[in-house]
Amino acid sequence: MTTDEHIVFVVDDDARLREALGELLAAHGIDSRTFASAGDYMTAKKPDVPACLILDVELPDINGLDFQRQIVEGNHPPIVFITGHGDIPSSVRAIKEGAVDFLTKPFDEAHLMAAINVAIGRDREVRSRRAELNALQERYRDLTPREREVLPLVVSGLLNKQAAAQLGISEVTLQIHRRNVMKKMEAASLADLVRIAGQLEIPIAHSRRSKDGSA
């Protein structure tokens, strides 16, 4: 897979429209795959590349808007709706659920291509963030149990001696664990480690305080 690879999926029960959209996309150098129903789309094996889903509202097996709601939590590409019977409530619902655009047939070619480009760009960004998060999670799994205890203390802003006291270890040992955490998480700085902890949703530790309020 190269960074330039992408595809458009077309789900519409009108065979002539599927053919026309396939030819249009090919003319713009965009690969496409067409389906007559949502069920066909769901069961088909699809390439793992940035994509856009052109989805008709009125499908033979399910309403497109209902289908959008079903797949919104999955790893499906951004949707561009097309319909022969558009209305404001439907378009508002589609956009609120995350659709890139809602086009009424016959639609303007330039408008459609612009929406497709936005959708593919959005999907590429989502995939990039997902890949980065997966890599961070893999690094986090490589930390030892003690290093996982050290990480939230370090990003909380505690001094080494404070973090060491909370864990009941020496400051020197804490510093060793801290260096290991920075190295394994590939953090260039403390600020970078704080950003990583945020992406992993690691709770920030708080210093324990004595009854008189001192640290």
UniProtKB/TrEMBL annotation:
GO terms for molecular function: DNA binding. Residues 136-201 form the HTH luxR-type domain. Keywords: DNA-binding, Phosphoprotein, Transcription, Transcription regulation. One of its GO terms (biological process) is phosphorelay signal transduction system. Residues 7-120 form the Response regulatory domain. The modification 4-aspartylphosphate is found at residue 56. InterPro entries: CheY-like_superfamily (IPR011006), Sig_transdc_resp-reg_C-effctor (IPR016032), Sig_transdc_resp-reg_receiver (IPR001789), Tscrpt_reg_LuxR_C (IPR000792), WH-like_DNA-bd_sf (IPR036388). This is Response regulator receiver protein. The lineage of its organism: Bacteria, Pseudomonadati, Pseudomonadota, Alphaproteobacteria, Hyphomicrobiales.
